[in-house]
Specification:
This protein is α/β, with parallel strands linked by helices. The chain has 20 helices and 29 strands. It has five domains: about 80 residues, GIY-YIG endonuclease (3-Layer(aba) Sandwich); about 60 residues; about 180 residues, P-loop containing nucleotide triphosphate hydrolases (Rossmann fold, 3-Layer(aba) Sandwich); about 180 residues, 3-Layer(aba) Sandwich (Rossmann fold); about 90 residues, 2-Layer Sandwich (Alpha-Beta Plaits), CATH 3.30.70. Helix 1 crosses helix 11. The site of adenosine-5'-diphosphate (ADP) has 16 residues, from helix 8.
Length: about 725
């Protein structure tokens, strides 16, 4: 009789704890092993866990347990990754199974395809030698496994020659190992760093050697060459035999980054983001798990890859809002990077020209180290920034560019230099209305106006994706030619630029206009090559691009974003506008930025004009501290949704009624969300505001554990450390 042991297995599903299964003891399964188990009528892939998550739960009788079907031939999940699953689940109040699911988001890694077969020399000589056979023997003489087709090509022979050699026992057919990713070489080149860069790189390299968690903020102005500086830390990690991970906010658009990496390390890094194919995903996941992939650049989800030897994480553009995941498991990649560093005892580098208030405060508290770069590598000065007061220099009726900005654009064109106009609004116009009856086009399922996308002839909802053909007549009063667009989007700015400068070569950079990432990359390539005169773009252009010939940046609406009811509105606007204007004059040309505004006295605009970042930061940090907002207090949002507003409200009120009393924790709301309906669901928000030192997670657990479960189609979600208040 074989003896079975009981093992907890965590499945990548919305489950709070592992389920127990039986497996023969002689399999010697260990925590971290990937296995298949029966669940209901299906087979599922899961991970053998340890008992901790199961503590205090009722156990199923051994005689009723089902059996683990098989162990999978993939490397086990490293212990750090298992800890990370538990940490993230605890912190975000998500089921551990859903965090595990993020770690397993490479289906193909678990269903390997049939291996490709290849030929290898056995050493046995063929009885008869021909010139063709001799060529095969010579080419294949290095002992490696050749794909048949490659061998035919290299030796210049037909398939029959190869087949005959297999029959003769000279060649054997065997499985080919999948191609390993190339290994980046830390010493491929020795970069010539400026003195400032070299002294910034030195402490970053030193941190890598320490085998302990540390966080360093690399705070360097736009164009100071932060990439090359943190590459030194990557090189140190590689030299120490560690894997490294670099997070980028807009990975699919960063050809420039990959090129810089190749120049420095001699080959491309492994990429991890939504654009890679399922097959590649599977291969990369396995290569990372086996330790074959040494450097990965990726989007936030790359944090959940099963690195066995991770020794460094760099978070580039650490202030970027896209590091916060807003669905399912709501986490902030910058924070989780630091957690992963502390679980694995390795350093984390946060890089930005406009670091987050959170990171500045952590530096001030001496929890993070600080390295600064205060000059541009090219020696160019930061662009001069001018406000254009729209009250005194307004655009013509129906136009959006002030005469001052138009003049500057004309001069830049004349000097054969590039300009960029920034407006963070996709499409042609954010609202369409009927001049005759006042009808406004609204999304049928969201409380939002439909945005006109004239280029595609569509009206579109930016919240649910609803699309409709732009009609000729008003759907309400049926009159024709009465529909008017209100306000500008990038397409409308492009129209105005085309009218004013018919000979200029224009490019629009907006996520919806290029059908694919490759098309976007092509537009970016044209800009870099100087084949574009005027670029008109949304926030896509603010993310780390280096346009060598860009001289003038115009911000069409500097006030957009300042009026939002969001504790980070000022910080975000400051970051976005300094990033955008920072694209100007990065190389030989000197740059200038122009901000159109109706509020030139606003502290954010004033800070941008004076370049006095420190004063702005001091004021902003003081305001956060006074209001007890993060990082001086903690927040969690609860979002209740239902088919009707009264239902959502009723449940939200029931939640509030069950909120435990706690010192220094307050529950605010319910309040109808600013975006009050999405996809037909009414939304109501609660905000939990807690003192910095309070255990917010314990409070939420106790509360939600005792509160009534939602019924009647009501749903709710918890967002710890919310970044989105809509
Ligand atoms: P940042 O990210 O700080 O805005 P980048 O890393 O994009 O700046 O660098 C700006 C430009 O300067 C890039 O084209 C980069 O290749 C170049 N550069 C920076 N440092 C060096 C250096 N030491 N040697 C050569 N080129 C450099
Ligand atoms: Zn909608």
């Amino acid at each position: 009789m074989t003896s079975d042991e009981t093992l907890p297995v965590l499945l990548p599903l919305a489950l709070d704890a592992p389920y127990d299964y039986l497996a023969p003891a002689r399999w010697a399964l260990k925590p971290g092993d990937f296995v298949t188990v029966p669940l209901g009528t299906r087979e599922r892939i899961g991970v053998v866990w340890h008992g901790k998550l199961n503590e205090g739960r009722a156990r199923v009788e051994t005689s009723k347990l089902r059996k683990i079907t098989a162990r999978l031939d993939v490397p086990p999940l490293p212990a750090d990754c298992m800890k990370l699953v538990e940490w993230v689940a605890h912190y975000t109040l998500s089921p551990p199974g859903m965090v595990l699911r993020m770690m397993m988001s490479a289906r193909a890694a678990f269903n390997p395809p049939k291996p490709r077969m290849g030929c290898r020399l056995t050493g046995a000589k063929p009885t008869r030698m021909t010139p063709a056979r001799a060529r095969v023997l010579e080419v294949a003489g290095n002992g490696m496994v050749w794909a048949k087709r490659d061998l035919m090509q290299a030796a210049g022979v037909g398939a029959s020659v190869i087949n005959a050699l297999v029959d003769a026992g000279t060649l054997t057919v065997e499985a080919m190992a999948p191609a390993r990713p190339p290994a980046p070489d830390p010493g491929f080149i020795t970069p010539k760093l400026s003195r400032e860069q070299a002294s910034a790189a030195q402490p970053l390299r030193a941190r890598v050697g320490e085998n302990t968690c540390s966080v360093t903020l690399l705070d360097g102005i736009t164009g100071s060459g932060k990439t090359l500086v943190y590459f030194e830390a990557v090189a140190a990690a590689l030299a120490a035999g560690k894997q490294a991970l670099i997070l980028l906010p807009e990975i699919a658009l960063t050809r420039q980054f990959v090129q810089a990496f190749e120049t420095r390390f001699g080959c491309a890094p492994v990429e991890w983001h939504s654009e890679i194919t399922p097959r590649q995903r599977g291969n990369s996941w396995l290569a990372i798990a086996r330790g074959e992939a040494r450097v990965v650049v990726g989007a936030r989800s790359a944090l959940f890859l099963p690195f066995p030897e991770l020794g460094l994480i760099v978070v580039d553009e650490e202030h970027d809002a896209s590091y916060k995941q807003e669905e399912q498991v709501r986490y902030h990649a910058r924070d989780i990077a630091v957690v992963r560093g502390s679980l694995g005892n390795f350093p984390v580098v946060l890089s930005s020209a406009t670091p987050s208030i959170e990171s500045h405060v952590n530096v001030a508290r001496e929890r993070y180290g600080l390295v600064r770069l205060s000059t541009r590598y090219s020696g160019a000065a930061l662009p001069d920034i001018t406000a254009i007061d729209m009250r005194t220099a307004p655009p013509e009726r129906g136009k959006w560019l002030s005469p001052i900005l138009v003049e500057v654009l004309g001069e830049t064109l004349q000097k054969k230099q590039q300009s960029l106009l920034f407006l963070n609004r996709r499409g042609y116009a954010p609202l369409t209305l009927c001049r005759a009856c006042g009808y406004r086009f609204e999304c049928p399922q969201c409380a939002a106006w439909l945005v006109e996308h004239r280029f595609r002839g569509q009206l579109q909802c930016h919240h649910c994706g609803h699309k409709a053909r732009a009609p000729k007549a008003c759907p309400n009063c049926a009159r024709e030619e009465t529909l008017v667009p209100c306000g500008p989007g990038v397409e409308r700015i492009a129209e105005e630029v085309r009218e004013r400068f018919p000979d200029a070569r224009i490019a629009i950079l907006s996520s919806d206009l290029a059908p694919s990432v490759n098309a976007l990359r092509e537009v970016l390539g044209r800009i870099t090559a100087g084949k574009t005169d005027i670029i008109i773009g949304t926030q896509l252009v603010a993310k780390g691009h280096h346009f060598p010939q860009l001289a003038t940046v115009g911000v069409v609406d500097g006030d957009l974003g300042l009026s939002q009811g969001d504790p980070r509105a000022s910080e975000r606007t400051y970051q976005l506008l300094s990033q955008v204007t920072g694209r100007a004059g990065r190389e030989a040309i000197s740059g200038a930025g122009y901000i159109q505004t109706y509020m030139p006295e606003h502290p954010v605009i004033k800070a941008l004009l004076s370049g006095d970042r420190d004063t702005f930061l001091r004021q902003e940090i003081a305001a956060r501290e006074a209001a007890r907002y993060p990082p001086f207090g903690r927040l969690a949002a609860l979002i209740v949704t239902a088919a009707s507003l009264p239902r959502a409200n009723a449940y939200a009120r029931a939640l509030v009624a069950h909120a435990p009393r706690a010192e220094k924790i307050r529950v605010l709301g319910p309040a109808e969300a600013p975006l009050s309906v999405i996809r037909g669901r009414h939304r109501v928000r609660l905000l939990v505001k807690a003192a910095k030192q309070s255990d917010l997670q314990a409070y939420l657990r106790q509360w939600l554990g005792a509160a009534p479960s939602p019924k009647g189609g009501v749903r709710f979600s918890v967002d710890v450390d919310p970044y989105n208040f809509m």
